[in-house]
Amino acid sequence: MRRRGPLAAFVALGLLWGTWAALVPAVQDAVGVSKGELGLLLLLVAVASLPTMLLTGREVDHRGTRILPFAIVGLAVAAVLPGLADSPGALAAALLVLGVATGATDVTMNSAVAELEARRSTRLMQLAHALFSAGVLVGAVACGIARQAGASRLQILAPVALAILVAAALNLRQEQIERPRTSSRGGLRLESALIPIGIACGAAFVIEGGMENWGALFVERELDASPAVSALAPAAHGLSMMLGRLSGQWLERRLGDTRLLASAAAVALIGLVVVSLAQVVPLAILGFFIGGAGISIAAPALFGAGGRQASPDERGRALATVTTIGYLGFLVGPPLVGGAAEAVGLRAAFAVLALVAAALVVATPRLGLEGKP
Question: Mean pLDDT, the chain, as a whole number?
Fold first, then answer.
């Protein structure tokens, strides 16, 4: 199996979510909701994606990664729907569909990369997630420029959907991994041995999702920045995520997963404190950069540990366990920040994320990551 197709899937998903991160203020204005209401609407992505992830993990074990291009096509269709929503109800429906497509794509592409790691005896997960972050960076910057020029939501999202379709096409000619199974263990369930890793991944994604989805809104609403400038928050976050994950390829081999993850969470803590205290745009952007650099390494390290622990015919279910619990954090993060922002203000909400980072620093040594083969 060649790595080009699965890695392109990571770029495509990052492009979509980077665009979305910079588009959140426009979406809020278009549908006329408060920050708290927007946070609850974002929770619908989690409601749809989490059961989809468990189902997809079972299907990957059953059918192999040949389902990846179909999942990506679904993602392309779902990408344009928030651009058509003109009411809270329409946005809710769009986010439910987006959640299904995101969940299916995410588990399948991570399973494909985990399979590549196993077959080639190498590590690619940090690189794959670095490419996701590169997509986030490109999507956020392009969206900010387009919004400043007066482009509508649909005019911004339609080219993103076309780019996602290109990623689907790149996966059509891949050597697909298919492992038919006859096991009766077909229910939607979590692998208990991987639940602690999943919870740690969830904590990391609470931070990542909160920073990514609320960064532009923080800079635009709290610091009175223009749309183009506010897009620099998710862009800086995406750039530092990409650089952090590229360095993670090297750091994993030298520090080991435990020291690397604990150090990364500590750096994220520093960045979040800077954001919560920032009174000027440059300092806030710096905080998003530092926070992204820190938290960038967490998810790939934990996904890799989950994939390496599993046997080949259970890898899809194992990755689904880590991904499902992990992305519960990623998807609960934005509404958590929204609820906190509604209650105590957006600035204090980022201080809450700093507390999550502190908890991850403390918990990392108890995960036993160095014991994973």
Answer: 83
Distance between CA atoms of residues 358 and 114, nearest Å: 29
Structural tokens at position 235: 């862009």
Of 94-108, 127-141, 248-262, the range with the lowest mean pLDDT is 248-262
Q: What's the Cα-to-Cα distance from 171 to each of 1, 9, 12, 168, 300, rounded to whole Å?
A: 10, 8, 12, 5, 21
- Cβ(215)–Cβ(136) below 8 Å: no
CA–CA distance, 327 with 54 (Å, rounded to integer): 12
Q: Are 303 and 110 in contact (CB under 8 A)?
A: yes
This prediction has a pTM of 0.71
CA dihedral 225, 227, 232, 235 (to 10 degrees): 150
Contact in structure between 87 and 40 (CB atoms under 8 Å): no
CATH for 4-174+190-371 (1.20.1250.20, 1.10.357.10, 1.10.760.10, 3.40.50.2000) = 1.20.1250.20
pLDDT of residue 354: 93
Contact between 11 and 167 under an 8 Å Cβ cutoff? The reply is yes
What value does the mean pLDDT take over residues 86-94? 92
In angstroms, rounded to a whole number, what is the distance separating the alpha carbons of residues 76 and 39?
A: 23
